[in-house]
UniProtKB/TrEMBL annotation:
Domain GST N-terminal residues, every copy: 4-87
Gene Ontology biological process terms in this record: glutathione metabolic process; L-phenylalanine catabolic process; L-tyrosine catabolic process
Catalytic activity: RX + glutathione = an S-substituted glutathione + a halide anion + H(+); 4-maleylacetoacetate = 4-fumarylacetoacetate
PANTHER family named in the record: MALEYLACETOACETATE ISOMERASE (PTHR42673:SF4)
NCBIfam families attached to this UniProt entry: maiA
The protein's annotated pathway: Amino-acid degradation; L-phenylalanine degradation; acetoacetate and fumarate from L-phenylalanine: step 5/6
PROSITE patterns reported in the protein's UniProt record: GLUTAREDOXIN_2, GST_CTER, GST_NTER
Identification of the protein by name: Maleylacetoacetate isomerase
């Protein structure tokens, strides 16, 4: 019997979903997308049906190999362990630690602070300044860290999980009108990565749920 196609619950604009879409593209996994619109109907992530899939009421969630996994980094690590090529975590433990440090810096130290649910709490008037502060304070640290870890990409010359976190976070920074001039290394790596096919096919402007006016 043929194994069921993996299903990704995703929102075109979600940076965490984009991380996983890049991993799936790099590893050549054929999958289906079920869009979860985070703003329509008060947010489809709050539906009872979706909550049974991911009790955190967030995208992404991936149905794969008979299980459902939430949390983008856990998903990427599962894909890495079950579909090891191309490698997204370097073999060298020190480089691997750098990849995880950068991934966590973004996934735990920046994105959650500018996530939709937090911005709702902050209120419309203060949202932009709040998000800009969260991103610049994380990017200040990241730019410094990259001086000692980066090659062509975030850690050396191989695309890693850190790069899957970087590109979607830079897109968020652009959305929140963060001035990227102080972040020359971040900007340069982002540009290099955006030229790769896996980053292009998974891009928010090219998803099944991308609104017509944002398609490119
Ligand atoms: N740590 C989670 C964070 C997931 C997350 O924050 N997802 C956002 C979109 S990027 C979301 O679903 N937000 C819905 C909401 O805030 O209501 C991960 O890495 O997957």
């Amino acid at each position: 019997m043929q194994a069921a196609k993996p299903v990704l619950y995703s929102y075109f604009r979600s940076s965490c979903s984009w991380r996983v879409r890049i991993a799936l593209a790099l590893k050549g996994v054929d999958y289906e997308i079920i869009p979860i619109n985070l703003t329509k109907d008060g947010g489809q992530q709050f539906s009872e049906e979706f909550q049974t899939l991911n009790p955190m009421k967030q995208v992404p969630a991936l149905k794969i190999d008979g299980i459902i996994i939430g949390q983008s980094l856990a998903i990427i690590e599962y894909l890495e362990e079950t579909r090891p090529t191309p490698r997204l975590l370097p073999q060298d433990p020190k480089k691997r630690a750098s990849v995880r440090m950068i991934s966590d810096l973004i996934a735990a130290g920046i994105q959650p602070l500018q996530n939709l649910s937090v911005l709702k709490q902050v209120g419309e008037q203060n949202q932009l300044a709040w998000a800009q502060k969260a991103i610049t304070s994380g990017f200040n640290a990241l730019e410094q860290i990259l001086q000692s870890t980066a090659g062509k990409y975030c850690v050396g010359d191989e695309v890693s999980m850190a790069d899957l976190c970087l590109v979607p976070q830079v897109a968020n920074a652009e959305r929140f009108k963060v001035d990227l001039t102080p972040y020359a290394t971040i900007s340069h790596i982002n540009k290099t990565l955006l030229a790769l096919e896996a980053f292009q096919v998974s891009h928010p402007c090219r998803q099944p749920d991308t609104p017509v006016e944002l398609r490119a």
